[in-house]
Design brief:
mainly alpha; about 75% helix; elongated
Length: about 170
């Protein structure tokens, strides 16, 4: 695409009608480019923020169950198998959603990722409030757990931003 160079008058206004239309078109192209850059940055921030929680949910229970299953049994009581399966499944889900966030514009997948991570956050805070979930006794509220959930919240916010941007760019029909 070839663009004519815009000529601006004293107050930054285009000098002629042809220049004005060229100026407006160039402004729209620059605006679209700026929006694409910001969405790409938000996608990367969201993906990076979910990397640590997904690896924590996937690797920690896997290694603990392999090398020290007594720790899992002590921490989670009778629900230790359920807890292990939950954490490993959550880690895999979150790793998949890193790829979805980076590459997909499918609004249904974005919603599924948002809801899945919100459920994970809710389960954590409910389980630390003294409620037994899935046979797992209440867990203590630890700073690392809060940090992991904060990173998941960053992912959810990034996903919501991308969702909103995709809905706006498609005119709300997607």
């Amino acid at each position: 695409m070839v663009f004519r160079r815009k000529t601006l008058g004293v107050f930054g206004e285009p000098n002629s009608k042809t220049t004005k239309s060229t100026y407006s078109y160039e402004w729209m192209i620059n605006q679209e480019r700026n929006e694409m850059v910001s969405v790409k940055s938000v996608r990367r921030i969201g993906a990076a923020s979910l990397l640590v929680p997904s690896l924590d949910h996937l690797i920690s229970p896997s290694l603990t169950i392999m090398f020290a299953p007594v720790i899992m049994q002590t921490m989670f009581g009778l629900g230790w198998v359920t807890a292990t399966i939950f954490f490993i499944s959550l880690g895999i889900f979150q790793l998949i959603w890193i790829g979805v966030l980076l590459k997909s514009n499918n609004l249904s997948l974005l919603i599924l990722g948002i809801v899945g991570n919100l459920v994970s956050i809710l389960i954590y805070f409910v389980s630390t409030s003294g409620v037994t979930i899935f046979g797992v006794p209440p867990q203590p509220l630890i700073p690392f757990g809060v940090f992991i959930k904060a990173l998941e919240i960053v992912f959810v916010l990034a996903s919501l931003f991308i969702f909103r941007t995709n809905v706006r760019s498609s005119g709300g029909t997607r």
